[in-house]
Q: What sequence folds into this?
């Protein structure tokens, strides 16, 4: 077999093989593959963003809680001192009433803060992480 | 660095030129004869890859959801612990005083509405 005939057969073979390929199918398959990789990449980017927000949220919660605890402890200490120094039972009872009223107010504020903090936790679109 | 590698590959290709051409020709012939099956195989492979990527995305999303759920729970617990600390502090102050049961009840009733949360 001469080289020309050999090359001709090979070229025809290639042509016939290429003719049997479906460009629409190849395009569609390639598009599906690229799209699936992009979806995966987008999900990871979204995840990174959410984790960043979560870190910030955690710091905010910690700071809010520290401030609340510090302020509450200061007031409780002050009232405790007044209770200790009270001279009569009535006076003591009055300060104790102030203490529990303040405690109740403080707990209410803390509850509200917790609700705000929980509502501000980032959510994944379509997620049901509650 | 890649130069010598390409050179070596080129050498091997030249060395096995005939068998490679022969194999290529056979492959083309084979594709011509079995193109439908091969195309179907490619389609299946692509579907599998797409499904696998979709599975990986779902797994990642699931992991994130779990992380968020865990974080929500721990944040809630931290707030509850802070609330319990306040109640304990007040309780400690009350315990030190010589209060009657009625007085204790009067004071505790004010805080009772928070019990459901803490």
A:
């Amino acid at each position: 077999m001469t080289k020309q005939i050999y090359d001709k057969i090979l070229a025809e073979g290639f042509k016939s093989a290429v003719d049997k390929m479906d460009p629409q199918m190849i395009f569609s398959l390639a598009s599906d593959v690229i799209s699936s990789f992009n979806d995966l990449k987008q999900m990871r980017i979204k995840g990174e963003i959410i984790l960043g927000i979560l870190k910030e949220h955690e710091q905010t919660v910690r700071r809010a809680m520290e401030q609340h605890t510090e302020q509450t402890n200061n007031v409780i200490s002050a009232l405790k001192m007044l209770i200790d120094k009270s001279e009569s039972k009535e006076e003591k009872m009055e300060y104790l009433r102030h203490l529990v009223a303040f405690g109740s107010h403080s707990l209410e504020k803390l509850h509200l803060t917790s609700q705000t903090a929980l509502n501000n936790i980032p959510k994944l679109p379509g997620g049901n992480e509650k | 660095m890649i130069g010598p590698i390409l050179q070596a590959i080129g050498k091997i290709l030249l060395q096995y030129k005939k068998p490679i051409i022969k194999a290529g020709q056979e492959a083309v012939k084979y594709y011509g004869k079995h193109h439908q099956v091969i195309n179907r195989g490619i389609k299946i492979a692509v579907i599998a890859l797409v499904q696998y990527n979709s599975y990986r995305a779902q797994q990642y999303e699931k992991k994130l959801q779990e992380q968020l759920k865990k974080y929500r729970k721990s944040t809630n617990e931290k707030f509850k612990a802070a609330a319990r600390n306040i109640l304990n502090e007040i309780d400690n102050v009350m315990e030190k005083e010589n209060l009657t049961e009625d007085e204790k009840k009067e004071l505790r009733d004010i805080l009772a509405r928070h019990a459901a949360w803490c």
Observations:
- Helices of chain B lie at 2-15, 17-96, 101-112.
- Chain B touches chain A through 54 residues (CB under 8 Å).
